[in-house]
């Protein structure tokens, strides 16, 4: 009986400490770090001129009546073909509760702007976003660049595949909304955006068949009009047949019924 007392006291202390910590947690929570990584790319099938520069910036844009505050910037000179990977980690000491943070990208050549993101890519402290895709749009033609052969057949892997139809219904993103897409990488990893949430996982290619899984993703709620996300993600739970015609990827079921079509918006 005497030997049982220390054990009982130890367990009681654990519960007491847990209750105390639980009460304290309601008073304040530490501000988490902000971690984000991903790729920046453009849709045009073109090669950049030499000495082109990429800038990816992480900013605090909380005040509409004041310039954005730069938290961190990545600069890469003499870039070649996209995608261009980036990664940020900002300690909690540099963040403010309730503030809004965004990531943007731009490409310049001889101080002339060529490409820039035209959509706000918001990131949240405490949510480790590891597959953010920054899409840059072309600004002008001042820096001429050679075009790629339009007759080329897009490869299955390392191509940005934009979702264009799902179960016979056309899919089109509204202005300012990220488009649904997927990218099949050479290391048998798949990543993309389903309409509301990013997803990532693994895939296996066997001839003209693709199988996916396991697939993981973020858990943000969908806004009205984006209910197709569930069907898109469900498609990635099954084995599908694939075929490519020019720049169009088709995924079909074993009965050869087309379930989804995609358009190549960038060729690696």
UniProtKB/TrEMBL annotation:
Gene3D superfamilies: 2.40.128.270. Transmembrane segments: none annotated. InterPro entries: DUF306_Meta_HslJ (IPR005184), HslJ-like_sf (IPR038670), Lipoprotein_YbaY-like (IPR053196), Pilotin (IPR039366). PANTHER family: GLYCOPROTEIN/POLYSACCHARIDE METABOLISM, GLYCOPROTEIN_POLYSACCHARIDE METABOLISM. This is META domain-containing protein. Residues 154-262 form the DUF306 domain.
